[in-house]
Amino acid sequence: MSLVDRHVEFVEALRTAGIPVSLAEDIDAARATTALPWGDRETIRTAYAATLVKRAGHRQPFDELFDLYFPALTGDIRAAGLDDPAEPDEVDAGPRDTGEALNTLRDELADVMTEGDPQALRDLAIDALGRFGAMPGRGPGLSSWSAYQALKRVAPEELVDRIVAGLLAQGDDRATAQRRALAQVDRFTRHVEQDALRRIAEEKGARHVAESTLRPTIDNLNFLSARKSDLEAMRREIQPLARRLATRLTKEQHARRRGPLDFRRTVRASISTGGVPITTHHRPKRPHRSELVVLCDVSGSVANFAQFTLLLVFALRDQFTKVRAFTFIDNIHEVTHHFTPGADVVDVMTNLAAETSHAALWGRTNYGRAFRRFTEEHPDALGPKTSLLVLGDARSNYSDLEIDVFRAMVDECKRTYWLNPEHARNWGNGDSAAPTYAEIAPMLECRNITQLGEFVHDLV
Fold first, then answer.
1. Which residue from 83, 72, 313 is spatially nearest to 63, judged by alpha carbons?
2. How far apart are CA 282 and CA 262, in angstroms?
3. Cα 236 to Cα 241: distance, rounded to the nearest angstrom
4. Are 366 and 398 in contact (CB under 8 A)?
5. Handedness of CA 297, 302, 303, 309 (dihedral sign)
């Protein structure tokens, strides 16, 4: 593959991962890298990042893709002093192998982690995968390298006590030593995983690895597949997203502030220009902001989606006259009081999670019962100025959907939207009542932060 082809594939992989790259930026990156020496890999990385990456949240997936398409190493490179080929019985031995090669590597790994030498740690990770992560003879379509097998054989987490003892001997206190030891183990694990991806990319191509293993950017990550570490990143993304939306909305509202043409004032002003209406005058536009009521399904993994949507809506509460929020599983519970001005995002989400039990009576999702209880307990919540927003996957465990109750709620409001975090192709499968509810209110697919931000912008 030529360098031009690799550049084109790299840019396409960035776009696929959710990193926007325009044609002009693509050309800028090509020009920048052409003017730089390719002997310094980090300089090339910096040039690509400076021309293609526009947001801090996109830097990690950019680095992962750069390492795939422009690897620092090729082939089976071993660390200095450990370049003897692995014996066949070592490669095929089980995870409890106590051979000399394994013990030697573990001893050196403990010493390197204690000393904190980053280059030596990276070399040992490469050697560990080369020795203990090889899986030759696997079937078609399967990779011959496994980071999981290598880490299981080396078991770096079992070295924590030895590393802590070494750091204590150097003068660290126990808490600091424990923290540094765990950080070194985590760093070694990441190096092994990165080297496995590099080797697999050499076998199957960087595009295959990028499409099958790398996760999308945090703003394009599916709410329902987010891990704990992803949720932390999403929390940090909500407030900047709210600020950007609020700024854009304010500008658009100022641009739309002009009301209809005031013909009388315009004609009067044209007298000074000989009857030519050079300057037009308009009647002041009456400001109008609607009320917002949000109903959130907080059952199971859908709860993450509901919480982030609530946080974004309340971050923009100044755009509405009034905002009220309710959570439900099979019972209704108001949570508006948690969203006070200046409230900490983590505290709000913790409180919402703690109050999930109030939204459940029997513990099984029942949309029909929740809608009926809402109309019974909060009859004043909806009105002709209200925008109703329903958040959930519409999976109601085959219970009574109370279609008439929901239709009455929709008819009472100015407008209604339903955001569904499931892919539209799954609507109607199993116990999903999405097609039935979609006949009454518009149902929109909302699976990530990008789609959520676009919807909120259109809502207000």
1. 72
2. 5
3. 9
4. no
5. negative
- The pLDDT, as a whole number, for residue 23 is 92
Count of Cβ atoms closer than 10 Å to residue 222 Cβ: 15
Can you tell me which residue has the tokens 């126990």?
174
Beta bridge partners of 386: 291
Instruction: Determine contact, residues 442/299, Cβ cutoff 8 Å.
Output: no
Q: Which CATH superfamily is domain 229-256+289-459 in?
A: von Willebrand factor, type A domain (3.40.50.410)
Dihedral pair phi/psi, residue 292, rounded to 5°: -130, 130
Pick from 372, 380, 436: nearest CA to 408: 372
Q: Give CA–CA dist 117/187, Å, rounded.
A: 11
**Sequence-separated contacts (24+) of 12-16 with Cβ below 8 Å:** 13/65, 13/68, 13/69, 13/206, 13/207, 13/210, 14/52, 14/61, 14/62, 14/65, 16/210, 16/211
Rg (CA), the chain: 29
CB burial readout 243-266, b (16+ within 10 A) else e: eebeeebeeeeeeeeeeeeeeeee
Confidence of residue 196 (pLDDT cuts 50, 70, 90): confident
Q: If 0-12 CB within 10 Å is exposed, 13-18 middle and 19+ buried, where does residue 191 land?
A: buried
Amino acid in position 83: D
Query: Is this prediction's pTM over 0.85?
Result: no
The mean per-residue pLDDT over the stretch 107-118 comes to 89
Q: Which one has a higher pLDDT value, 226 or 424? A: 424
The structural domains of the chain, with segments of one domain joined by +, span 3-69, 88-214, 229-256+289-459, 263-287
Looking up tokens 């809506």, which residue turns up? 313
Res 192 pLDDT > 80:
yes
Query: Hey, is 388 helix, strand or coil?
Result: strand
Which residue(s) pair with 133 in the sheet?
A: none
- pLDDT band, very low/low/confident/very high, at 40 (cuts 50, 70, 90): confident
